[in-house]
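queue> pop job 88
queue> type: inverse folding (structure -> sequence)
queue> payload:
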């Protein structure tokens, strides 16, 4: 007989781990099974070396507050991202208190978030941004300086041997964080498996078919031995990174029509030289190059993985037709359908700057990439830095009534009308905002159960349903409480 369960999670990343944990806390009697085609979880985008580990709260990322010609700067998007990250912080804090997660330092560390810009235009913009954000409660503590002596104290590597007379400025928020989403994912899945959730690694889902009784029949096979099998589920979540599109297409739900994805790979320069690492404790972001996607904003970051601090700089874009690092060379072709071909062509025609940017990135050798680093760190030496391959990001392309097709950055949940299946497409700031993304999914896909879950959600997320930025006292209380629990006080 075919096994029947309540929930199937496809993909062993931070999204499936977060949703599985929420559902287990809310409905411990439900039977949950998770599938991962690789030998372990957190091997794709959630792996700590496949992402920058930035706890995205819009403290330093300029793309969340773009300058629109002739219009005043609008903090709404930045505030929204920060609100979402605060929900993630509260959830992780509750799990630490409950013993679900290990010592906070194993997955999160205090790391100031900075923005550094050069040139009169960008300096003026950064100052305007600072003046707007310092009035927002969630950005309390943001600092601004054009003084080389002050910036040198914040991040010495930015100032050493910098050319005199060049306009520059920086902002700094001491309350930023570095997050090891790989460690976090492993700890969440460890707790789930200890609690009876089945995690089946080396198992690849091949197809999904809706049954007359409303369940989903999922055909899968082991990657070792290729043994086929099947399972039925009342609800399916597809958190398979770039392959989410392929599986949602195979499910046949009409809601996926018009969607495609464009894969963009990445590389980082990395050093673990203690003398260099000791001089920089911050995540420093700047402006993106012309035509570069927001995920390619250059930044020089402190990373803490397995207790060891390193520095990373990048990302440098690469191209592969694969939707995952461990994907197929046919991914970019196999996604094409009659309903998404035109939107994808329109995206190609409308983004020549992106194509030019990608070609330029592909032509850079190691020396050229270190030259890019020297705009941040003038003293950088080629021999101190090595290149590492980051994860594949599958950027969303979809239909647009006016333009025919658009390239969308960020994440998007696509779900069936009856809420029986949902999947996540897109990239950053997904991991940092996994909790609010999954909360929205719960509300949409479980309308009957959701009202009964709200009291427990308030236990897990004390300010659930409230907006911190509208209440300065509540914002200060919440951030102070989570900082204490997570050990990320300034």
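queue> result:
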């Amino acid at each position: 007989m075919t096994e029947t369960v309540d929930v199937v999670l496809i993909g062993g990343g931070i999204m499936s781990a977060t949703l599985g944990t929420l559902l287990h806390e809310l409905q411990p009697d439900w039977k949950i099974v998770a599938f991962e085609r690789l030998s372990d979880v957190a091997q794709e985008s959630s792996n700590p070396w496949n992402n920058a580990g930035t706890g995205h709260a819009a403290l330093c990322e300029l793309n969340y507050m773009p300058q629109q010609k002739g219009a005043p700067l609008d903090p709404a998007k930045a505030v929204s991202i920060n609100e979402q990250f605060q929900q993630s912080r509260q959830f992780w804090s509750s799990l630490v208190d409950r013993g679900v997660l290990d010592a906070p330092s194993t997955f999160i560390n205090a790391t100031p978030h900075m923005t550094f810009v050069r040139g009169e235009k960008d300096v003026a913009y950064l100052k305007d941004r600072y003046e707007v954000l310092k009035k927002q409660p969630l950005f309390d503590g943001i600092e601004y300086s054009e003084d080389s002596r002050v910036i040198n104290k914040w991040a010495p590597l930015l100032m050493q041997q910098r050319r005199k007379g060049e306009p520059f400025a920086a902002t700094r928020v001491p309350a930023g964080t570095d997050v090891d989403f790989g460690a976090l994912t492993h700890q969440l899945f460890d707790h789930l498996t200890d609690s009876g959730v089945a995690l089946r690694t080396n198992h690849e889902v091949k197809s999904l078919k809706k049954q007359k009784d409303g369940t989903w029949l999922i055909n899968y096979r082991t990657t070792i031995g290729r043994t086929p099998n099947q399972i039925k589920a009342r609800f399916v979540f597809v958190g398979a990174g770039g392959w989410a599109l392929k599986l949602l297409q195979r499910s046949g739900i009409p809601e996926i029509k018009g969607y495609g994805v464009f894969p963009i790979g990445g590389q980082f320069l990395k050093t673990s030289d203690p003398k260099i690492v000791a001089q920089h404790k911050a995540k420093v972001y700047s402006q993106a190059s012309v035509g570069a996607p927001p995920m390619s904003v250059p930044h020089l970051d402190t990373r803490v993985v397995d207790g060891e601090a390193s520095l990373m700089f990048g990302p440098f874009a690469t191209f592969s037709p694969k939707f995952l690092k461990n994907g197929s060379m046919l991914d970019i072709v196999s996604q094409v359908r009659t309903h998404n071909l035109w939107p994808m062509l329109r995206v190609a025609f409308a983004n020549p700057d992106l194509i030019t940017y990608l070609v330029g990135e592909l032509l850079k050798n190691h020396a050229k990439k270190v030259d890019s680093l020297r705009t941040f760190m003038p003293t950088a030496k080629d021999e101190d830095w090595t290149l590492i391959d980051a994860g594949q990001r599958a950027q969303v392309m979809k239909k647009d009534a006016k333009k025919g097709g658009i390239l969308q950055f960020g994440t998007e949940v696509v779900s069936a009308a009856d809420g029986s299946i949902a999947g996540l497409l897109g990239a950053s700031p997904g991991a940092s905002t996994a909790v609010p993304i999954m909360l929205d999914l719960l509300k949409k896909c479980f309308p009957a159960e959701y009202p009964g879950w709200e009291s427990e959600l308030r236990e897990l997320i004390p300010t659930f349903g409230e907006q911190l930025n509208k209440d300065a006292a509540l914002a200060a209380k919440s951030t102070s409480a989570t900082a204490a629990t997570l050990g990320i006080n300034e």
